[in-house]
Each structure stands twice: as C-alpha cells, then as structure tokens.
Design brief:
Rossmann fold; 3 domains; 14 helices
Length: about 500
C-alpha cells in the first residue's frame, strides 16, 4: 500500500537510524537526525495553531532546512507551497494571493518582499527566517528547539503540496499534488531505472521544482541517500560528484550541454555517476556525452501536472531510440490526440495527452489550480492536455515536436524548434538561441531570438541553418537580445520571452 514520503522517512529512521540520508557541503545527516528535526518542526507548527490543510510557503534554496521544513510541515498536516526564493514583486504577490499561505519560511534576503506583501495577503501570519530574525518574525532555530510533534497520518488522496511549473513553454501555474503521488511515481521510477539503497542521488536542480522532488521521492522510496548541492555549477560539477560519491543525477539538456562544452580532461571518467536522467538533450550530443564521461544518459518527457516523467527511453542501449523521448512509463497512459481528443495514427502529429493507467484521475496526476485554462486542463475521458505536440512511431516511441504556440509548419506538417535551436547553438558566434512562432502568421513564420558572443552577419546564420537543417524549416526572421530568460534548469522561458515588449518589433527578415 502506498504511503506518504514523510511516513516512509520516519519508518526508515526507526529501522536504521544511523544510515546516511543527506550529504551537504561535507556534512552528513542520518535518517534519524532528519526525522527528529522534522518532528520538532511539526511540533512548532502545531503549537503555532496551524490546522490541517493550512498552507506553508517554503522560499528556501537547496539546503538541509528546506528538506527538514518540507517533511516537518507535512507531518503537521500542512499543505506545502515551494516557491523560488528569488521571487519578488507582483510575481510573488500573485503566487501568495493564489495559495494563501498561513506561514512562510524564507531566507533574510526574501524577508523585505514578504513583509511588504503582508497587507495584500492577510492569511500570512507567521514569518520564519532561516537566519537572523528581526522583531515580529521567528528564527528557524526556534522550530528546532521545542518538543517533537505528533505526526499526522495523511491518506493518499490528501493534498501534499502546490508545485509550480517552470514556465519553460507556458506561464507558470500551480499544480496540486497529493500524498499518494510522489511515493508511487518515485518508487516506480526507481525500480524502472535500477536505483536502490546503494545509490546516492545528486540533486542540483532547485528543490522547489518538480524534477528535484521526484529525485527526493526516488531516494526515500528506494533507501538511497542524497548528495545535495545549492545549485548547478558546470565548473565544479564533476569534482563535487566525485567527492560526494554520486551515482545518479537529473539534469536538463542545456545543463548537460554546458558540461560537454568544457575542455576535455583525462579525469572526465573519474567519477561514480552511472546514470543521468534528462529532458531536452540535443540528439547530436547524446552518445558523444555518454562516451566521453562513461555513463548512461536516459532521455524522457514529463509534466509537473503528471508528477514527473510519463515517457522514458529504455536504459539498455540496444532498445532505445535517440531523438525520441521514449516509451510510456508503466504507470501512465500517453496518447497523441487531435483537437477533439481523438487518437491520431502513428506518424501524425497531435497534442500529447496523459492519464493514469488503471487508477482514478488525481491519484498521481496533479490538478492545476486554474483547471480549465487555455494552458492545461483535464478534458473528456480524463485526458490531461499538455499543450505540447508530439508524434508516435509504429513501435510506440514518442518524439516531442514543440509547444503548440511555437511550431513552424510547412505544407501542413509540423516541425520542432528544438532542432533549429540546437543547430544555431553549433555556430561559434551564437551563445544562446530560442525560436518563437511569429504571431498572426502561418507556415514558416518564426523568429530566432539570439544572444551573440561574437559579431556575425545574420544572413550567414540563415545560410548555416539551411545547410545543417537539410529541408527542415528555418527561421524567417532574427532578433538579437542581451539575454534569454531561463528556468532554473537552464531551459528558455518562451512564454516570458514572447510577452516581452518589442520582442517582435524591428525584426531582421532574411532573404
């Protein structure tokens, strides 16, 4: 029977209290230490008067306090709201106004923004500071000094947390996850990938986002330990992984590209990582990355709304298909459907839709807070509509095509902007690239938004694309900018880019 992650942590602490659970900046915390701290946090929340179902915002970086607060607030019966600690202004106000937390745990740097918003968010009664705490707030140390609380027993259908999507392809939105989802998906994913108690999962992606929390779930359900880093650093990555004994890591294609771009070294294989889980890895770098660093790279496709991955390529090299995002995972039914939610034949592009396999909707598929919006919603037949386009082949391998707003067309056929972006990044003058569909145009109307590292004629980039893409549509317009907004995993925030004032003005149209 599926149980909650906090309950699994407590059980692991009782069974093997001294077993390492978390390694952070040279310090190792056992399962018992993390569980004891979490229960003390739960006790503080109980004494502070939080009722079951009250929401607690976590605005913390990757640090032990995040995990202790995450487990502790959940054990008190609270619903967690992990937020980017860098959020400020109207973005922060919108998410607090949508989730209405009773308490927030944040670093000192975020405190002025939270204090400024208390009048607009009257539900926010308690501010806990992971650092020096001014008058009217509570120091994090106070949560650990009191007595342990009585852990709440949450049924699988009880709300666990509200996780926000990254905003890579559409505006970020909150998704309600339930207690039964993470352990079910994390345990099944660990078994599928062969992750067990001997593994150490390296987490460099932010804990407030879905990918890192799926890694957390894999560790708790499999008995593995965690090597936690504050953030991704291409320069320090391999050295940290080597010293920390990491065996598995979850990284996006842009971050893997940064690692590959570094100068080759004799020590490139001198690490213990055997498995990398990835999304959006450029196909031309896949095997080259594996061969250089001596590991297995598994490409997949996932949704925050579906609590993580819904397709994966097989781990075995002989079974996988590079350039695809793999086969549907055993716990998900994945389909490519037309606009009326009818299946389309293999080889035909449609919208990628997902639903639970053999389980009621909501068991692990999250519920968007703005259910029924134009971004994502659950449609007829329980299908979760992703807004992403894909195509199946005859063997059931899915190829991601694009976000529906950003696909170029030719003769009615849809093409992926990823291939265009990867091609542009091959040019030595291009530091970054994102391709957007031109609003109000059909056919090949797309604009390549570029960050340049060296002067280059845009006509030269157009010729470069035509040569490398061999008949694939190429951008009809180009726009040079200083920076492209990115998610914390290194992917372009295309929704934010599209909404920037003037982004479609003064375009350079190639001949």
């Amino acid at each position: 029977m599926t149980t909650s992650l906090p309950t699994l942590l407590l059980a692991a602490a009782r069974a093997d209290p001294a077993r390492p659970f978390l390694v952070f900046e040279g310090r190792t915390l056992s399962r018992a230490e993390v569980a004891d701290a979490a229960l003390r946090v739960a006790g503080w929340f109980e004494r502070a008067g939080l009722a079951a179902g009250d929401r607690v915002a976590l605005m913390l970086d990757n640090q032990p306090e995040f995990l202790v607060a995450w487990f502790g607030a959940s054990l008190a019966g609270a619903v967690l709201v992990p937020l980017d600690p860098e959020l400020r202004g109207e973005d922060l106000a919108a998410r607090l106004g949508e989730t209405l937390p009773r308490a927030a745990i944040a670093p000192p740097s975020a405190l002025p923004a939270l204090l400024a918003l208390q009048r607009r968010v009257p539900s926010l009664r308690h501010l806990v500071v992971a650092g020096p705490a001014p008058t009217g707030t509570t120091a994090w140390s106070a949560l650990l000094d009191g007595a342990a609380g009585e852990p709440a027993v949450a049924p699988p259908e009880a709300p666990l947390e509200i996780v926000y999507t990254s905003g890579a392809t559409a505006r970020g939105r909150g998704v309600l996850w339930r207690h039964g989802g993470l352990p079910a998906v994390g345990g099944a994913l660990a078994r599928l990938l062969g992750v067990d108690a001997c593994d150490r999962l390296m987490i460099v992606l932010p804990l407030f986002a879905a990918n890192a929390q799926v890694s957390l779930a894999m560790a708790v359900t499999s008995g593995a330990s965690i090597l936690l880093e504050r953030r991704f650093s291409a320069d320090a990555f391999w050295n940290v992984a080597r010293k920390g004994g990491a065996t598995q890591v979850n990284l996006s294609g842009p971050l893997l590209s940064q690692l590959y771009a570094a100068r080759p070294r004799k020590s490139d294989r001198g690490h213990s990582i055997r498995l990398v889980l990835s999304v959006a890895m450029p196909q031309h770098l896949h095997e080259a990355f594996e061969n250089r660093f001596g590991l297995c790279l598994v490409e997949g496709f996932g949704l925050t709304e579906a609590t993580g991955y819904v397709t994966l390529n097989p781990v075995e090299r002989g079974r996988r298909k590079l350039g695809t995002v793999g086969l549907a995972v055993p716990w998900a039914e994945v389909a490519v459907l037309d606009e009326r939610l009818r299946g389309v034949p293999s080889g035909v592009t449609g919208e990628i839709c997902v639903r639970s396999r053999g389980r009621a909707i909501g068991a692990w598929i999250g519920e968007p807070l703005r259910n029924g919006s134009a971004d994502v919603h659950v449609g007829r037949g329980g299908w979760l509509r992703s807004g992403d386009l894909g195509v199946f082949d005859d063997e059931g391998f899915l190829t991601f095509v694009d976000r529906s707003e950003d696909h170029p067309q030719r003769d009615g056929e849809l093409y992926s902007t990823q291939r265009i972006e990867n091609t542009l990044l091959r040019h030595p003058a291009v530091a970054d690239a994102a391709v957007l569909a031109l609003p109000g145009e059909r056919g090949d109307g797309s604009v390549a938004v570029l960050v340049l590292r060296a002067p280059v004629a845009l006509e030269e980039l157009a010729r470069f694309c035509r040569e490398w893409l061999e008949g694939h549509p190429v951008p009809s317009c180009y726009k040079v900018v200083e920076r492209i907004p990115k998610t914390t995993s290194g992917r372009a925030r295309k929704a934010e880019l599209r909404s920037q004032p003037g982004i479609f003005d003064d375009l350079y149209r190639v001949t």
